[in-house]
Amino acid sequence: MKRLVAGAAALAAAGLGMARWAASRGRVPGAAKDPLESSRWLGVTINRPPDEVAPAGHLPEPLARVDAEVRMNRAPGDRGTEIYARPREHRAGAEGVLARLRGEDPRTTVRTALRETKSLLETGDVLRSDEEIATTRPTLPGKVLDMALGRASEGGRL
Q1: For residue 23, how far is the Cα from the chain centroid?
Q2: Among positive and negative, which fits the CA dihedral 101, 147, 111, 156?
Q3: Quick one: pLDDT at residue 33?
Q4: What gap in Å lies between CA 80 and CA 50, rounded to an integer?
Q5: Calpha distance 118→127 (Å, rounded)
Q6: What is the pTM of this model?
Q7: Which of 27, 40, 83, 116 has most Cβ atoms within 10 angstroms of its Cβ?
Q8: Residue 3: is it exposed, middle or buried by C-beta count within 10 angstroms (0-12/13-18/19+)?
Q9: Cβ atoms of 45 and 82 closer than 8 Å
Q10: Which CA distances in Å does 140 have to 6, 14, 43, 136, 137?
């Protein structure tokens, strides 16, 4: 167990050292490199026809509660519906990076709403990966896993 903790501490220290080194060289985080990143459309394909996705033009609840522009069209090959959304509020550059670190990025809210919409329409429920897992005692790897699961719906591919 001591080796595991020592290894995790060494890995964390190496990561922190690399981050400090990259910052000292004036490198810009990936999200800040593309000035159009904050205004790009986020998309997801749902395996349902458009009339089931938005009956009578009403958006599904997860998308209706966010302040975003939304557009829909048929997926190629008649394989469901494509939904695209982007926040009305755009934060570019360093402001966007800082907002994401603070958990206030509007793109994160739209991305989460798209994930929830897909899950709700395809399965009838919003599936979550962060269900409570019973353990005998909290551990360092468990805390890292909890932190990662807490932010899992915010990033990555849709």
Answers
A1: 24
A2: positive
A3: 54
A4: 7
A5: 10
A6: 0.60
A7: 83
A8: exposed
A9: yes
A10: 11, 17, 35, 13, 10
Q: Spell out the alpha helix ranges (H) of 25-158.
A: 30-33, 50-53, 61-64, 93-102, 106-123, 140-150
Q: How far apart are CA 129 and CA 53, in angstroms?
A: 24
- Helix, strand, coil share of the chain (percent; to 5): 55, 10, 35
Residues 6+ apart with CB under 8 A from 50: 72, 73, 74, 81
Closest CA to 60 of 112, 128, 114: 114
Residue 143 has pLDDT above 80, yes or no: no
Q: Which DSSP string corresponds to 8-36?
A: HHHHHHHHHHHHHHHHHTTPPPHHHH-TT
Q: Any idea of the CA torsion for 10, 12, 18, 24, to the nearest 10 degrees?
A: -120
Task: Tell whether the model's pLDDT for residue 65 goes beyond 70.
Answer: yes
